[in-house]
Design goal:
The chain is mainly α and 238 residues long. The protein has helices at 2-7, 12-23, 29-46, 55-58, 63-81, 87-115, 123-129, 133-137, 139-142, 152-159, 162-175, 179-183, 200-212, 217-237, and strands at residues 188-191, 194-197. The protein is flat.
Length: 238
């Protein structure tokens, strides 16, 4: 699953939750450890697949995940320095450092793309946001069956009863909102002696991407299984 998410086009599935945490002021050492471990392991594991190779570090679709990894390192360094300097010094360091690193990152990215070291965004990426892009600009991509929009029949054929049950599990997660359940991807927490997986953002974004492209049903299936399990567990308890 880790490798699948990293090599898949919808990087939003595993970066958006961490971006929200960082910019909402909810950063913690647990977040740093969780994402750093997740990113390093997922990238290394995905690169072991012969078909994938060095794509996770040489394609633009995967740069946002690397960007979040870099932002976390900066925020961690800032948190370490915060109690050791004055507030004014901290704000100066934070704003100046973040601006300088941001500008440098953009310049380096475009330089790598221009030099051919990093591939630009592909037509499949643009097709995720504009479903008619491939038909107009790259017909060969639109002609591939796995790049077609997913029909309702496919959802029920692939997910079976879980297609109707997983929204209940999502509702239970929303009903019992806390930082972990809302933002942390694949974070397992202990609550009332039972383990739950926080997947609200993952579920919502996965449903969208799965509807855009048939092949992305693979990224939706894990969260559907998890939320269906939560729904059945809560229902049988009640």
């Amino acid at each position: 699953v880790l490798a699948l998410i990293v090599i898949g086009e919808p990087f939003f599935l595993h970066t958006s939750s961490f971006v929200i945490v960082i910019f909402s002021g909810r950063y913690s050492s647990r977040l740093f450890v969780a994402y750093t471990t997740f990113y390093c392991l997922a990238t290394i594991l995905s690169m072991q697949i012969p078909f994938v190779g060095f794509q996770p570090v040489r394609t633009s679709e995967h740069m946002p995940a690397f960007g979040v990894f870099g932002i976390l390192q900066i925020v961690a360094a800032m948190q370490y320095a915060r109690p050791r300097i004055t507030r004014q010094q901290f704000m100066t360091l934070f704003v100046g450092g973040l601006t300088a690193v941001g500008i440098l990152a953009v310049v380096v990215y475009f330089a790598l793309v221009w030099g051919g070291y990093v591939a630009p965004f592909s037509g499949r990426f643009y097709s995720l946001w504009d479903t008619g892009y491939a038909k107009i600009h790259i017909p060969i991509i639109a002609s591939v069956s796995e790049h077609q929009p997913t029909t309702w029949v496919s959802f029920f054929f692939d997910l079976h009863i879980t297609a109707a049950v997983f929204p209940v599990g999502l509702w239970y997660c929303v009903k019992n909102v806390n930082d972990e359940r809302v933002f942390s991807e694949f974070l397992v927490i202990l609550d009332q002696m039972k383990f739950f997986v926080a997947v609200i953002l993952y579920a919502v974004s996965a449903v969208y991407f799965a509807g855009v492209m048939v092949r992305l049903m693979l990224t939706l299936t894990p969260v559907v299984c998890v939320l269906s399990g939560i729904a059945f567990s809560y229902t049988f308890e009640k």
